[in-house]
Amino acid sequence: MTVRQPHPIEVRSYEILRSRVDLSPMPPLWRAVTERVIHATADLEYAVDLVTREEYLRQGWAALRDGAPVVTDEGMVAAGITAREPICHIADPAAARMARAAGITRSAAAVRLSYAEVGPGAVWVVGSSPEAISEIIARRVSPALVVGVPVGFVGAREAKEALRASGLPQLSNASEKGGSAVAAAAVNALLYADEAGHR
Questions:
Q1: How far apart are alpha carbons 191 and 199 in whole angstroms?
Q2: Which of 185, 174, 157, 171 is nearest to 57 (CA)?
Q3: Which of 66, 134, 159, 189 has the fewest Cβ atoms within 10 angstroms?
Q4: Alpha-carbon distance 119 to 45, whole Å?
Q5: What confidence tens digit (pLDDT) does each residue in 154-198 have?
């Protein structure tokens, strides 16, 4: 998708992670995503913590290749996505007004505003807010892919379980770990991958 020359430090990082964990049995896009998440976090446990299906990732990859919008739940996730300008309404004053009026969180309001803007077929990326995942499910946004990896001890694991149970095409993780760096890394892996999943 995006032709890029990786920095020598990135090249060396990939060499080290591949010397420590063998991900070669994984399907190509799943491997590309897992490697980039490990590269971004230096956490080898993501090799067994990420949960998805290759067909979900291929659907998301194809949508990104065709120009689908990327919607994030927070500015830190948006800042980490390097090959696309994401949509993020969390800081929009309209999200604050809607949240107060509807008695919902600002994250949920931002999802509503974003969906009104992009419609179905977007790639949704959540690194922080369990409420954003709940709203994505409730709004029936018909996503190309939901990357749902909020971090935390309160509601994060449950939101990811609900995402997996929803039947939506998704990438999540089983543990309480996650966060903006993980979410951005997963999307970057898809943006950088070719048809064979190579970066």
A1: 9
A2: 171
A3: 66
A4: 35
A5: 999 999 999 999 999 999 999 999 999 999 999 999 999 986 556
> SS3 for 195?
coil
Distance CA 109, CA 26 (A): 37
Q: Any catalytic annotation for residue 39?
A: yes
Beta bridge partners of 123: 70, 145
Sequence-distant (≥ 6) Cβ neighbours of residue 147 within 8 angstroms: 60, 123, 124, 125, 126, 170, 171, 172, 183, 186, 187
Q: Comparing C-alpha atoms, which of 119, 107, 98 is closest to residue 159?
A: 107
Q: Output the 3-class SS for 103-115.
A: CCCHHHHHHHHHH
**Alpha-helix residue ranges (DSSP H) falling in 103-151:** 106-118, 130-139
Nearest alpha carbon to residue 173 among 157, 190, 189:
157
What DSSP line would sit under 80-105, residue for residue? H--SS--B--TT-HHHHHHHHHHT--
Residue 2's pLDDT band, with cuts at 50, 70 and 90, is very low
**In whole angstroms, what is the distance from residue 199 CA to residue 193 CA?**
4
pLDDT of residue 13: 87
Q: Which two tokens stand for residue 36?
A: 């980039």
